[in-house]
Design brief:
seven-stranded parallel sheet; 414 residues; 13% strand; TIM Barrel; alpha/beta; two-stranded parallel ribbon
C-alpha cells in the first residue's frame, strides 16, 4: 500500500471519529460526568479501559490494521480502537472532536536506570516484571537527580505539522501539556529498591525509606512547579482518565481556563496511590506515604486517591487530603465499611474485578450481581464503574461487549 493510500485510509477513519464526536450524546455524557464529579450525580457512570486488544484485533476486520508504515500503523490502531469502542463497548466514554499532540517535554523522571526482565503473558499486553535493585543504601539515593524540565518546542511543532497535514482539516490538532499530577512515587520506589526489600525496610530501616521518599518527593514537587512556571500545563476538565479512574469533567476546579499561560496547578486534578501499601498498617501508611503525598496533593484543585489498594481501614487518613473528590474502590475493598466512613463526600471509583472476564467462560449473572452488590453497599455515594487491568479475555471480545451492556443497563435502567 502506497503512502498516499495509507493516508487516505487514516483520513477515512478520522472522519468516522469526527462523526462520532459530533453526536449529541457526547455533550450529554460531558454533562453527566460533570455532575458526578461535582457530587450532584444523575446516575452511576461506566467506563472500560486497559483492553487486551492484541488478543483479538487480527480476527476482527474493523480492528485489523492495514497500514505498512510503522508510524501510520500506530495511528491507525488508535483510530480503529476509538471507533470500535464507540460502536460496541457502549459506556459513557466521551469522544472529543480533536486530536491531541502531547508537548515534547524532557525532565519528567528521577534519572535512575533500572535493570528489568520481563516475561510475556501469552498474547496479552500484560508482562511480568522483575527489577534488579538500583538503590540499596543511603549513598544510592543520590542517583535520584533533581529535574530540569525542558519543552522542546521545535519537536512539538514538527509533530503538530505532521498531524495537520495528515487529517487536521477533519480532526483539529490540539497541543497538550501535562494535565494532572497523580503521585505514584511508591510504584516507582519499589522498582528502584525491590518490593520485598522496601517493605522490610519500613520496619528495619525507616530512616532510609524516609530519606528516599524525601528525595523522590522533592523531585516530584520540582517537576510540578517547573511545569507551572514554564506554562506547560493543560486543562484537566476534559481529561478522559483522572488518577486510576475516569473522566475529570468538573465545574469545581478554581478556573476553567484553557490558556496554558494562565493554567495553575490549583486548576488541575492531582492525587496519589501507594498500591504496595495494601497490607501496611494505617500508621505506617500515614508516616511513609500520605505525609509525603499531601505535599503534592495540596497544590491541586481536586484530588483522586488510590488504585488497587483497599482503603476501607484508612478512610480516616483520607479525610485529611485537601480537595479529595474521588476514591478508588478496588476489588479487595470492603465497600459498605468504606461508604459508612465516606458519608457522601467523595465519588466512589469502583473497580470490578477483571477476573470476571478472564476465566474459561464469561458468567454474565456473576458480573451483574457484582455491580448490584457494589451499588447496594455504596448506598447514596456517587459512583463510577471502571473495568480496567484486563489482562485477558481469552481472545473473546464478546465478553467485553457483554460486560459493558450489563453495566450500562444497571447504571441507566430507563
Amino acid at each position: 500500500m502506497t503512502y498516499h493510500h495509507q493516508r487516505d485510509l487514516l483520513r477515512r477513519l478520522a472522519d468516522e471519529v469526527a462523526e462520532i464526536a459530533s453526536l449529541p450524546v457526547q455533550r450529554e455524557r460531558i454533562s453527566l460526568w460533570t455532575r458526578l464529579n461535582d457530587l450532584d450525580p444523575v446516575r452511576p457512570m461506566v467506563w472500560i479501559t486497559e483492553i487486551p486488544w492484541t488478543e483479538f484485533e487480527d480476527d476482527i476486520e474493523e480492528l485489523r490494521p492495514a497500514c505498512e508504515d510503522e508510524k501510520l500503523r500506530s495511528i491507525e490502531l488508535d483510530l480503529r480502537r476509538k471507533i470500535f469502542t464507540a460502536r460496541y463497548l457502549a459506556t459513557d466514554e466521551v469522544v472529543l472532536p480533536t486530536w491531541d499532540v502531547p508537548l515534547e517535554i524532557e525532565g519528567l523522571s528521577y534519572g535512575v536506570t533500572v535493570a528489568e526482565q520481563t516475561i510475556a503473558q501469552g498474547s496479552s499486553y500484560i508482562l511480568s516484571h522483575h527489577y534488579k535493585p538500583a538503590i540499596t543504601d543511603f549513598a544510592d539515593i543520590e542517583k535520584i537527580v533533581m529535574p530540569q524540565v525542558v519543552h522542546h518546542a521545535a519537536q512539538t511543532a514538527e509533530r503538530v505539522a505532521f498531524f495537520e497535514g495528515l487529517f487536521g482539516d477533519i480532526l483539529p490538532i490540539r497541543t497538550r501539556g501535562i494535565r494532572q499530577h497523580f503521585n505514584d512515587i511508591w510504584d516507582t520506589l519499589v522498582r528502584f529498591t525491590g518490593v520485598t526489600e522496601a517493605l522490610i525496610d519500613l520496619s528495619e530501616r525507616p530512616d532510609f525509606i524516609h530519606a528516599l521518599m524525601r528525595r523522590m518527593t522533592d523531585n516530584y514537587l520540582s517537576r510540578m512547579t517547573q511545569l507551572e512556571a514554564q506554562q506547560l500545563l493543560a486543562p484537566s476538565t476534559d481529561l478522559a482518565r483522572v488518577g486510576s479512574g475516569a473522566s475529570g469533567c468538573s465545574s469545581r476546579l478554581p478556573s476553567a481556563t484553557t490558556d496554558p499561560a494562565t493554567i495553575r496547578l490549583v486548576d488541575q486534578w492531582g492525587g496519589a496511590t501507594p498500591q504496595i501499601f495494601a497490607d501496611v498498617s494505617p500508621e505506617m501508611h500515614e508516616e511513609f506515604a500520605l505525609r509525603y503525598e499531601l505535599e503534592t496533593m495540596q497544590l491541586c484543585g481536586l484530588n483522586y486517591y488510590g488504585c488497587c489498594e483497599p482503603v476501607h481501614n484508612k478512610m480516616h487518613l483520607l479525610a485529611t487530603v485537601p480537595n479529595l473528590r474521588k476514591v478508588s474502590i478496588s476489588p479487595w475493598c470492603d465497600v459498605a465499611k468504606t461508604a459508612a466512613e465516606a458519608r457522601q463526600r467523595y465519588v466512589f471509583s469502583h473497580k470490578p474485578s477483571p477476573a470476571l472476564l478472564a476465566g474459561a467462560y464469561f458468567d454474565g449473572t456473576r458480573a451483574k450481581q457484582d455491580i448490584i452488590d457494589r451499588l447496594e453497599q455504596s448506598g447514596p455515594m456517587p459512583c463510577e464503574f471502571i473495568m480496567k487491568d484486563i489482562s485477558t479475555v481469552q481472545g473473546d471480545v464478546q465478553r467485553l461487549i457483554d460486560w459493558c451492556r450489563i453495566a450500562s443497563r444497571l447504571a441507566d435502567p430507563l
